[in-house]
Write a structure and sequence with these properties.
The chain has 4 helices and no strands. The chain is mostly helical. The chain has one domain: Orthogonal Bundle (Helix Hairpins), CATH 1.10.287.
Length: 100
């Protein structure tokens, strides 16, 4: 399954479950991503790797749902973004520990 197919599957699930899936609900979709990220952090702090993985997959699902609501070519945009990121110099962000 490629990213576009995964997005289609996520959007079908959103339709069946009556989850938000339109651009006018992007604020709800973004908040759901934030919630899943918070749950992932909690799992990390609890050293619960299985739950961390589960929550990160939820982040991916919610992100694909948000992208699907924008009706964009997720696969193409992902490839373009990766090419762009490979061409960038790495910069540490202020406030992030030297552990990275």
């Amino acid at each position: 399954m490629n990213l576009d197919e995964a997005t289609d599957e996520v959007m079908e699930l959103a339709h069946v479950k009556r989850f938000p899936r339109t651009l006018d609900k992007i604020d709800i979709l973004l908040m759901r991503i934030q919630i899943e990220l918070s749950e992932a952090m909690e799992a990390h702090l609890e050293k619960n790797v299985d739950n961390l993985i589960d929550e990160l997959i939820d982040v991916l699902i919610q992100t694909l749902q948000a992208l699907g609501s924008l009706s964009c070519d997720v696969e193409r945009l992902f490839i373009d973004k990766m090419v762009k990121n490979f061409g960038r110099d790495f910069k540490k962000h202020e406030g992030i520990k030297d552990a990275i």
